[in-house]
Amino acid sequence: MPAPRSTVRRGLAAVAALPLLALAATACGYGSQAKDDDAKANVSAKGKKLSSDTVKIGYFPNLTHATALVGIQEGTIQKELGGTKVESTTFNAGPSEIEALNAGSIDIGFIGPSPSINAYTKSQGKGLRIISGSASGGVKLVVNPDRIKTLDDLKGKKIATPQLGNTQDVAFLNWISEKGWKVDAQSGKGDVSVVRSDNKVTPDAYRSGDLDGAWVPEPTASKLVSEGAKVLLDETDLWPDKKFVITNIIVSQKFLSEHPDVVEAVLKGSVATNKWINANPEKAKASANKALETLSGKPLPQEILDPAWESIEITDDPLAQTLKTQAGYSVKSGLLKDPNLQGIYDLGPLNKILKAEGLPEVADAGLGVK
Fold first, then answer.
1. Torsion angles phi and psi, residue 304, rounded to 5
2. Which of 31, 303, 325, 328 is the most exposed place for a label (fewest CB within 10 A)?
3. Closest by CA position to 259, among listed 358, 161, 154, 349
4. pTM (2 decimals)?
5. Residue 19 DSSP label
6. 185-223 in b/e burial notation, b at 16+ Cβ within 10 A?
7. Strands (E), 80-127
8. Partners of 233 in beta bridges
9. How many angstroms separate the Cα of 46 from the Cα of each of 27, 49, 109, 170, 351?
10. Which residues lie across from 88 on neighbouring strands?
11. What is the pLDDT of residue 46?
């Protein structure tokens, strides 16, 4: 039985307008500044001493990362960490966040399934673990209605995805393949031109006519609609039960091994944040928009915020079976050889928290640590 989901009822901000802070930490707090303060700095709000002064968390300024946006904005995650301070960093897409995780620039990340799969495979199962879900849905194919009327009209057109190998890129390549069309995955050239474009510049490229559409997450999709694009396909409609993982929470195995108490505190904060979003959807929407304003310098307009927020579900469940399906998409596209994903999940800490909260535990589709 899946964990309860909170439907994010109205979207966050247009990332197109965000000046992306990739690999530049937004100061949400730092560790103790003097040896005399060490004990105080490491004591959580509940009196338990934690093992690290700081935890570095990465996420995207996307509505599909609402748990991170709201959890950091409202201090829900920080509350569980007590004296262990959050340092946060934002990214445009998964591959760059994985680079940061591998380099130790972040410890925990909110990220899509495809980069998680690629990173786990390339490290031969030693780089990361998926420790929770975060969101489902929130991805759309939006197009110029003057150039594209039906799905068949995509042939010969230029369609953007956020980055080579990111979750939307892999999903679009798979969709193209199922249409019977051919595209070289690396170059993006073929029956459809797949243009890898940073979410923050995609709306400008669309406005100038350089793009015919985009397969993108929220709020970029709704930003494009505000520029005159039309939603041609909601990816949710392609999945059984209209559910698929779009955002997981990952952790470096090194950090998990050295600081399991800190990881558990972050997970407690995530679960608490998701519960609060579910119970307070309007307040949560406003909080997410405030977080985006902090990152970009201005809030999202309501006409972008509302439809984007409406299309996303927030969930503790990682929807592991859908990750297995997405791994198959990567193999099919030629971006990945058949991966061994055994051990990619460690849901023990999350299930411990869910059980204590009286919530249903979640499954790892047979891909958990043994």
1. -95, -45
2. 303
3. 349
4. 0.84
5. -
6. beebebebbbbebbbbebbebbeeeebbbbbbbbbbbbb
7. 85-90, 108-111
8. 141
9. 24, 9, 24, 43, 20
10. 26, 57
11. 56
If pLDDT is split at 50, 70 and 90, which confidence band does 71 have? very high
Beta carbons within 8 Å of 94's beta carbon, 6+ residues apart:
111, 112, 114, 115, 116, 163, 165, 166, 167
Going by C-alpha positions, the residue among 70, 108, 31 that lies closest to residue 294 is 70
Side-by-side strand order, sheet with 25-26: 5-8, 312-315, 128-137, 245-252, 108-111, 54-59, 85-90, 25-26
166-200: per-residue pLDDT in tens? 899 999 999 999 999 999 999 999 999 999 999 98
Please name the residues in contact with 359: beta carbons below 8 A apart, sequence gap of 6 or more.
3, 4, 271, 316
How many helices (H) and strands (E) would you count in the chain? 14, 13
In contact, 37 and 31? CB cutoff 8 Å: no
- Does the pLDDT value for residue 47 go beyond 60? no
**What sign does the dihedral 130-199-22-340 (CA atoms) show?**
positive
DSSP output for 266-332:
HHHHHHHHHHHHHH-HHHHHHHHHHHHHHHHSSPPPHHHHHHHHHTEEEES---HHHHHHHHHHHHH
Tokens of 76: 């829900």
Would you give the DSSP letter of residue 60?
-
Pull the structure tokens for residue 55: 């935890």
Average pLDDT across the chain, whole number: 88
Residues 294-322 have a mean pLDDT of 95
Q: pLDDT, tens digit, for every residue of 80-124?
A: 999 999 999 999 878 899 999 999 999 999 999 999 999 999 999
Position 9 confidence tier, pLDDT thresholds 50, 70, 90: very low
